[in-house]
Amino acid sequence: MKSEIISLQEVTFTYTEEEKNIRPAVDNVSFTIYEGEWVAIVGHNGSGKSTLARLMNGLLFPQKGTVRIFGETLNEQNLWETRSQMGMVFQNPDNQFVGATVQDDVAFALENNGIPFEEMVERVQQSIEKVNMSSFMNSEPHHLSGGQKQRVAIAGAIALQPRILLLDEATSMLDPQGREEVLSIVRKLREETDLTVISITHDLEEALLADRIIMMNQGEKYAVGSPEEIFLRGQELVDLGLDLPFAMNVSRLLRDQGIELVAEHMSEEELVNDLWTSHFNK
Amino acid sequence: MLEKMIFGRYIPGDSFIHRLDARAKLIFVFLFIAIVFIANSWITYGVLFVFTFLIIRMSKIRLYFLINGLKPVVILIIFTFLLHLIFTKEGSIIFEWKFIKIYEEGLRQGIFISIRFFVLVILTSILTLTTTPISITDALEALLNPLKKWKLPVHELALMMSISLRFIPTLMDETDKIMKAQMARGSDMTSGSIKERMNAIVPLLIPLFVSAFKRAEDLATAMEVRGYKGGEGRTRYRKLEWATRDTVILLTLVVLAVILLYFRQ
After folding, report:
1. Membrane spanning segments where (chain B) (predicted)?
2. What is the DSSP letter of B19?
3. For residue B20, which of B254, B242, B253, B238 has the smallest C-alpha distance?
4. pLDDT tens across A19-68, in order?
5. Any residues with CB less than 8 A from the CB of A128 and at least 6 apart, and which?
6. Over the stretch A61-76, which tens digit does the pLDDT of each residue have?
7. pTM assigned to the model
8. Which of A79, A116, A212, B102 qualifies as a FRET site for A275, CA 20 to 30 Å off?
């Protein structure tokens, strides 16, 4: 078993502590994420998944329970050290672009952490190459598409060579093409390094890419499991306000029409394979 | 209209002026503003005029483009010229028509002030046209750095400036979007009395402010996550490098000042 990298124990967080009748945004949640894993945290709006992200990098501290990162309890003292080991990409591509140009923005986290100039230039170059943005080094943010801006945000996040990449709804404001760009970069990064990826999303297509899914509902941990296990719940997911992946939807509708198919399909490929061979199986 | 304006715009290029250190350019412009006031005769103003044209040549910015972009200023210059022409009453009368009397001194003053105005506007425009806003910010930070001793938050000011500059296009896009959205709902911003038009701006400004605050909050979070904790212990990705050419350009100013002082009356 790989070593633990993030561990939440009985974490509870309420935004308005004074008012007792409001349910906590995160309610008694515990889970452990291991090094090198890709974990998706899914849930509809208000399920507490973004609050979880903020708890994991010390933007918020829990009222009850502990957040342990790299084996240490997150507190005011090790906060900055922890953050430098954890890259984070947010939802809105425009609102996280600090620098005037692509390379300035990628350098921002390096500048903050006092990396010497020569090393900085090298790392900026490398990070931009990793996200395939080398030809946009000097571009200004308003000349980039949403997907390109998110790729720059990833470059900025990985420039410090963190052990964890935290994606907080990073693809939800992008068009399908932009989303594909961003996800393929994340996949590539995972192949090249031992990066732990935590993606917070309400898009189950994106969650399919993960090794493990943590489902949140009303601030509580609803289910944990591999994508296969989670998607077997079918209708339950729809009731919780999540969109099923396209292939799964088609497969369900086909079965409703009385067309015999082997099982649930999660990817388009599986569905197509089942469809074109279904005639032979009769 | 905004596309034609050249104030604060940067035109990429690789001329001698483009390659100068932004600090040198800033110092140059400030000193030049002071030196311009030495001039007080035909020869000295002539020298200034020629000097300015040499700088324009060196920046490789097309003269037509420059003048065209500065049209609003040219109108202002003509207006100042006319004011001086009409209201200065010294020297001999060189032209008289009904109640308008034009004096020799008026013509002289008018031309001098116009040249002064013109060279100042041209040179400051060349500064912004040939320097990226980010370099200007960096240069300002470097030049103001000694003031840190007196507790002036130089780093914070420079960061504020560069973030504002970075968000101008974003907010412009946003304004455009909100304007179209309000127009689609039947708001009319282009006709009516001044008061009506002012009122039509309110539903434009409020959503803009709300979204700007939202952006600011998001940006602050993103900066914190990326380890921003003030200017202490920060390294810099952009380095300003002072080269020989920067010293040379400042020396030409000294030469200019000496020439002007010599020919001064």
Report:
1. 26-56, 63-87, 107-129, 242-263
2. H
3. B242
4. 667 788 888 899 999 999 999 999 888 888 889 999 998 899 999 899 99
5. A102, A103, A106, A134, A136, A137, A152, A155
6. 999 899 999 888 888 8
7. 0.80
8. A212
Q: How far apart are CA B141 and CA B164, in angstroms?
A: 15
Q: What is the ipTM of this complex?
A: 0.85
Residue A169 catalytic?
Answer: yes
pLDDT digits (tens, 9 = 90+) for B174-217: 999 998 898 898 877 777 788 888 888 888 899 999 999 999 99
> Which neighbouring-strand residues pair with B226?
none
The lowest-confidence range among B24-33, B120-129, B190-199, B239-248 is B190-199
Distance from CA of B139 to the nearest CA of A (A): 15
Query: Of A57, A103, A111, which is closest to B225 when you measure between CB atoms?
Result: A57
In angstroms, the CA B56 to CA B247 distance is 19
Burial of A44 (0-12, 13-18, 19+ CB in 10 A): middle
Report yes or no: A178 and A156 within 8 Å, Cβ to Cβ. no
Closest chain A residue to B220, measured at CA:
A96
Q: Which residues does chain B have within 8 Å of residue A127's beta carbon, measured at their own beta carbons?
A: none
Parse chain A into domains and list their residue ranges. 1-85+164-176+194-244, 245-282
Which residues, including other chains, have CB under 8 Å from residue B18's CB and lie 6 or more apart? B12, B59, B130, B131
Please report the DSSP string for A46-104 in residue order: TSSHHHHHHHHTTSS--SEEEEEETTEE--TTTHHHHHHTEEEE-S-SGGG--SSSHHH
Do the Cβ atoms of B148 and B78 come closer than 8 Å?
no
Options 3.10.580.10, 3.50.50.60, 3.40.50.300, 3.30.420.40; CATH for A1-85+164-176+194-244 is 3.40.50.300
